[in-house]
Design goal:
Largest sheet: 8 strands, parallel, barrel
Radius of gyration: 18 Å
Strand order of the largest sheet: 1-2-3-4-5-6-7-8
CATH superfamily: Divalent-metal-dependent TIM barrel enzymes
Order of helices and strands: EHEHHEHEHEHEHEHEHH
Helix content: 40-55%
CATH topology: TIM Barrel
CATH architecture: Alpha-Beta Barrel
Strand content: 5-15%
Distance between the termini: 13 Å
CATH class: Alpha Beta
Number of helices: 10
Length: 271
C-alpha cells in the first residue's frame, strides 16, 4: 500500500471540461481530484448542476480534498471585506455540496498585516464550520509577503482555530526561497494537502512562475527529501499533481493524467 493518496489537481489538464476531468481522473487511477471554482461556475452557467458533478465523483470513486480558491478575505476591511466574504461563502457552499473537505484560501499579492490576516482567517474558519468545509491557508512563493512555510504557519498558529490547516507545494517552497526542512513546522494534522510538482534549474528561482513547473522527478528539487520529512511527521494523505503548462494542455488529457500519476509514483514509492 502506498504511503500517500494520489490526487489530480484539475489545473493539470485544463481546458478539459469539468465532467471529463472527473472521468479521466477516475479512469486513470487517481483516488481524488481537486476542482477549481472557475470550472464549477462554467459548468453551472452552461446548464449543468452541482448534483451532476457530485454523481460523477461518486461514480468514479473520487474524493475531493479541496476546491480552489478563496481570495480577498485576508487583506480587506469594512464594506470591501463584507463583499469578498459573500463570494467566499458562495464558493464554500459549492465546496460543501460537492463533498469537499477543504477549500483553499489564497493570500494577497502584496504586503499584508499578518495579525489582521490571522483574525480574518479565524473568521473564515468559523464561517466554514457552519457551512461544512474547512478553508486551508495557502502561501504562494511568487507573492511579496505570504510566500513561505514560516509565514503560512504563523497565520495558522495566530488564528487560534482548531480547524486551521496549511497547503504545501514544492514549487512554492522553492520559489519563496524556503527549505523543505521547514515542513516540520506544523504537525501532520494541520496539513490540508500537499501539491506535487518539480521545477527546472533555470530560469533563476526568482523568475519562475506557475508555467515553469514540471512533472515530479524531471526537475532539480529533492522531492524524496520532501516526502521523507512528511512521512517523519506522520503525513500520509494527499499528493496532488498540480501543473500549469500550456504544452500539456495541448496534449491528450488522458495521456497527461496517466503520465503524471506514473511520475508521482516513481518518486513517492522510492522513498
Amino acid at each position: 500500500m502506498p504511503d500517500f493518496i494520489y490526487c489530480l489537481n484539475s489545473s493539470t489538464i485544463r481546458p478539459t471540461p469539468i465532467l471529463e476531468k472527473i472521468r479521466i481522473a477516475g479512469e486513470t487511477g487517481y483516488k481524488a481530484i481537486e476542482l477549481w471554482h472557475d470550472d464549477i461556475d462554467v459548468h453551472v452557467q452552461k446548464g449543468g448542476t452541482l448534483a451532476e458533478l457530485r454523481w460523477a465523483l461518486a461514480d468514479h470513486g473520487l474524493a475531493v480534498p479541496t476546491t480552489i480558491y478563496l481570495k480577498g478575505w485576508f487583506e480587506t476591511t469594512g464594506s470591501e471585506h463584507v463583499r469578498e466574504l459573500e463570494e467566499c461563502k458562495r464558493r464554500m457552499q459549492q465546496a460543501a455540496e460537492l463533498g469537499a473537505i477543504h477549500v483553499i484560501a489564497g493570500p494577497p499579492g502584496g504586503r499584508a498585516d499578518h495579525n489582521q490576516g490571522a483574525r480574518n482567517y479565524h473568521e473564515l474558519l468559523e464561517i466554514g464550520r457552519k457551512i461544512g468545509v474547512k478553508p486551508a491557508m495557502e502561501y504562494l512563493g511568487f507573492v511579496e509577503d505570504i510566500n513561505s512555510i514560516e509565514v503560512g504557519a504563523e497565520i495558522v498558529t495566530k488564528s487560534g482555530h482548531s480547524d486551521a490547516t496549511i497547503v504545501h507545494d514544492p514549487f512554492h517552497i522553492f520559489r519563496g526561497g524556503g527549505s523543505f526542512e521547514s515542513l516540520t513546522k506544523l504537525p501532520a494534522e494541520q496539513i490540508a494537502i500537499c501539491h506535487f510538482n518539480d521545477t527546472p534549474a533555470s530560469p533563476p528561482r526568482v523568475e519562475q512562475h506557475d508555467k515553469d513547473r514540471v512533472m515530479p522527478g524531471r526537475g532539480h528539487l529533492d522531492l524524496r527529501r520532501m516526502l521523507s520529512l512528511l512521512k517523519k511527521i506522520g503525513y500520509n494523505r494527499w499528493l496532488s499533481l498540480e501543473l500549469f503548462r500550456e504544452d500539456l494542455w495541448a496534449q491528450d488529457p488522458r495521456k497527461v493524467a496517466k503520465e503524471g500519476l506514473a511520475a508521482m509514483r516513481a518518486v513517492a514509492e522510492s522513498v
